[in-house]
Structures are given as C-alpha cells and as structure tokens.
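Job type: complex structure
Entries:
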Amino acid sequence: AQSVTQLGSHVSVSEGALVLLRCNYSSSVPPYLFWYVQYPNQGLQLLLKYTTGATLVKGINGFEAEFKKSETSFHLTKPSAHMSDAAEYFCAVSGGGSNYKLTFGKGTLLTVNP
Amino acid sequence: EAGVVQSPRYKIIEKKQPVAFWCNPISGHNTLYWYLQNLGQGPELLIRYENEEAVDDSQLPKDRFSAERLKGVDSTLKIQPAELGDSAVYLCASSLGDTPNTGELFFGEGSRLTVL
C-alpha cells in the first residue's frame, strides 16, 4: 500500500520569496516520487520525478525536490517565486515495477502575491 | 505534437441521465488512464489500459461506469445512470509504458461533469 500526505492545502508567498511545498509518503517498497503541476483549467504536467540515483532532482521552471528516505519526504522547493508559479501542485508516489500505480496527494494550491 | 485530447470539456446533465467522455491519447502511447478528480482532491485512478486490454479496473464502479478502448487508441468512459455524486473532473492520461522509467503521464485538460 502507498499513500501521500501534502502538508498545507494552501500556501501563499510573495513574489521573489522561497517556495516550499511539503510532501510525505508511505510505501512498502522503494518509492518512485513525482511532482505534478496543474494550472487553472489545464491538465496535470510533470514537474520532476525521482526513481533511483541522485536524491536531489531538478525539474522544469526552476523547481527541485530532494528525496529523504529517513524522513519519508519529497519536498518541492524553488528559490524565488514568480507570479506564473501560481497553480495547484500534486505530489504522487508509485511502487514502480510491473504493478506501477500512481497515487496522488490532495494537492497544495500555491498563490503568489505581488 | 498534439497532446491528449478530451471532449467534451464541460457537461451538465440531470441525474439519472447517461453521459460519455471521449479521449484521444498521444500518438504511439500504448497505455491510457482514466482518473477521477473530485473538488479539492488529487486524481484517483479509475481504469488503466495497455493497448486494448483493461489491466487495472479495480477502482471503476462497474454498476454504473463502463469504459472501452477499441483498437487500442481512442477511449470512451460512460456513466449510466449518473448520480449527483458523480460531479467531478474526469481526466484522461497516456504514456509510452506502464512504468515511470519509460516515461511520464501526459494528461488531457479534463472533462468537467455537473450532475443536477
């Protein structure tokens, strides 16, 4: 079984400030971890993913996330928020292998204030 | 390259009426997914196809929901009869394979259903 908990359904930051969106996971097997972004009235788009190897992964639009096994976390960060980053962000986990199934968190809505 | 195309984008129906959603995946993507996204929630998998075969439909409420993927390309998701609780966004996604190492999921814009 696997699950994802996103801490904070709504995060508000000022333009230029650090963005930190929290994600904790539960998985009975080594997880594959993902962050997706959903802009208003659009489909989900992959930001970044961790499967194996380097635990710090970089994605599009300046986002990055670090896999911390000891903390079962995969928090998403961006050093400086831009107005265009306003969207809903979903963390997801899968067990990988032949029974790959993606389980999403409930999402965090990011607002960026001018 | 065209993305995942879904239609209709919006649908409003009375309860007990039938409704159908259509999805055209990215060309060459053999895996197709239907997800349900309730307001304030993350997407939840309804069904996954590998080509024409439904390989995971454990979360599909089979008493009123049905899906098909004839010829392993386009797919249709049907609800009959619709209930008030079916109001949600129905997302279609496709990928080249069924593991994250072979690629990411590409999502359509979704079909928003409102049942009155």
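Summary: The mean pLDDT of chain A is 91. Chain A touches chain B through 26 residues (CB under 8 Å).
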